[in-house]
Description:
The complex is a heterodimer. By secondary structure, chain A is of the alpha+beta class. A six-stranded antiparallel sheet of chain A has the order 2-1-3-4-13-9. Chain A has a three-stranded antiparallel sheet with strand order 10-11-12. In chain A, strands 5-6 form a two-stranded antiparallel sheet. By secondary structure, chain B is of the alpha+beta class. In chain B, a hairpin with a 2-residue loop joins β5 and β6. Chain B is globular. In chain B, strands 1, 2, 3, 4, 7, 10, 11, 12, 20, 21, 22 and 23 form a twelve-stranded mixed sheet that branches. In chain B, strands 14-6-5-18 form a four-stranded antiparallel sheet, with no helix packed on it. Chain B has 13 helices and 23 strands. At the A-B interface, α1 and α2 of A face α1 and α7 of B.
Amino acid sequence: MSRSQRILVSLVVAVLLPVSVVTALAFSSGFPGGDDEMNARQRVSEQLERWRKLDAGGEPVAVHQGPWACVEDVGEKLIWEVKSWQEYTHYYKSSYSWRHQETGEKDLGSCVFGKQFVPCDTEDLIQRLNQARYCGVTSWRLPTYDELKSLADPETVAGQPMINRYLFPRTARGPYWTSTLEPGAELNIWTYDFYQGSGKPLPPHIAGWARLVSSKNQ
Amino acid sequence: MIFPASYWLRVLLHLCAVGLFTVSLASGLRLAVDGEWLLADLWARISPQGNVIAWHLAAGGGWVMLGITVLGALKKKPWKTQVRKSAGVIIRGIYLALPVQIAAGIWLYFGITGSGWVLTLHYWLAMVLSAVVLCHVVEQLIAKKGRHLPAVFIPTRLSRFSLRSLLLGVGALLSTGIAVVMLWWGSSAGYQNLYISPLDEHSRIQIDGAATESAWSSASAETVVTTQGNDYQRSVPVEVRALANAYTVYLLISWPDPEPNYSHLPLQKTQQGWRVNHNGFERDDERSFYEDKLAVMISKGNGFGGDHSIHLGSTPLAGYPASRSGRGLHYTEDGTIRDVWHWKAVRGADMSVLDDDYFGAPEAACAFCSRYKAGYQPDPVEDGGVRQNWDWFRPGQVMPLRLPVLQVRNQEVTNQEVTNQEVRNQEIGSDVPGHAMAWYSSIPYSLSLDNIPVGAQLPSVIWMSHYEGDRGDVRGQAQWHDGRWTLELARARDTGSPYDIALEDGVYMWVAPFDHAQTRHSYHHRPLRLRFAP
Lengths: 218, 534
């Protein structure tokens, strides 16, 4: 090997060694790459496409801004109620017996209307939201089982409810009412539990939670 | 150089030194970002992200290994006779500064008293060494026209196509490495034992932040020196004592703090409305208006960087949301958990509870999360804890969530009856007057009730109740007295929760005081190892 070749080889090693070390450092941390990174990007993209936050008047709220009163499922053209810490109509710990017009059980739950807790049922909540034209819509109702289940997100952190908590905070542990009836002689209505990620039919006198939904198109 | 030109050990050591210097500098610059040194913003942009503490400490181990090899070689070949003109003049600066730098690193790793000024020395020596190395490279390339480069990059025999010398060199370095690793494990260099004194089952420990029980005086104390917190160069020595009976472990943790900080993001009324007094909260880096805190972390391993749970940088997880502060995220790459207990001077004060959290696998990516916390998650909780007194935080104006009943009553604008119990509720936590209020002594905010004068303040902390569920597994209470916080806490040896780590012989523990800071805490590298009496 000639002298100039030896110098050239030395220079290559002198440059390659630190460069490869820094590259190894960079790729070992901060550059997950592969499926994990792609899945993360896809998940963020899907959420941005599917959801939109709305204020109580139905106006859009920016992605990282708040507060927001409802969440719109853009693809399904549905608007979902968001619960609140505050002890008023949307209080997250208000419970309801299930009632639809003359079917079901009246006033066996306990919810906040006005400034106090009163006996109530799902029909009371529906009337309240429709009267208030909450989030700009007036077709508030209980979701079907499939609609409610569509909010489930099994990728959330273990121990937390299986729902996007950044859009639907304050999700309580226990059954949420739907409008889907269980076929049979006795009246049982399907409920969904976001902590368990599963549903079951319950009789209407049970005090369950309620998250209402409305069609976007009036 | 201390060896002849192209001598195999010379080439090998030079290659190792180049590699180690690159790793040490790159990872060290990331670690230095928090220090607000000159050029810190530049380091934040260009330095690598992720588990860089582990890289930095591992490189430090490499330097020790290299140093031992060189010292062994020097024993046979005296220094003066081996310095050659080919190495240039500037290399002497490296010979001088490098041993001091390695010693400073060892000092910081072991958390010896005075780590604050050693940290300063460590940073500036890194800058000096970088400059010297750069000058050394320029000298070799320009002044000496690269003619001496083969002497440190190409071993003589290798240039004659013989690998024997190289293999010998690798063997020598590996032997040193194995010796260093054995020394490491055999000498407790990777941890500090904390012997837990047995506690009679009938002895009571009152969790009140006062070490008045006689059992504490018989418990042995271990001190770890933490640095690089909100006051970056201030060393905070944290003393830990432990007691245990068959069911419960009690810890007494004390650390100096010139003054207790209870002011936690207070809301202040201005002519334009309510605003939060803050200094960095919108980027998760509040450093002024924040309560004092202390975190305890338990892990089954003693890996570098909090058993590999610290990942620095703004986006250590590509594709996932960034760390808003740009400082990093806590998570584990293998999905195992680190048990984290968080004492908070205001938020937990009323409830005698620590916030029981954990570091685990990163949370799934989220588009709508304002603050992505990756693997830093609370243990499951049904209800309880605290609420923040705004409907949504904005750096400018905010809408308070609640008003204190007493405040409203005093202005005679409500017909709600204030009972004696409510009065007492507002007095709970007498150490934190005015910095928190109880949810049940407050009412929803409305403009019509808000006759509070301009300039007045509202607390941002609203106590609900003790956590219901796993999150409330750790009981604790602290007191500040004569420039020192003393935190007394208790937790079951085994809670049975998959989000907790059982406190058994051999588990490791770290402590991290936060001095009126949201996320900046001082820390130590070498954990305590809990040793229970058999």
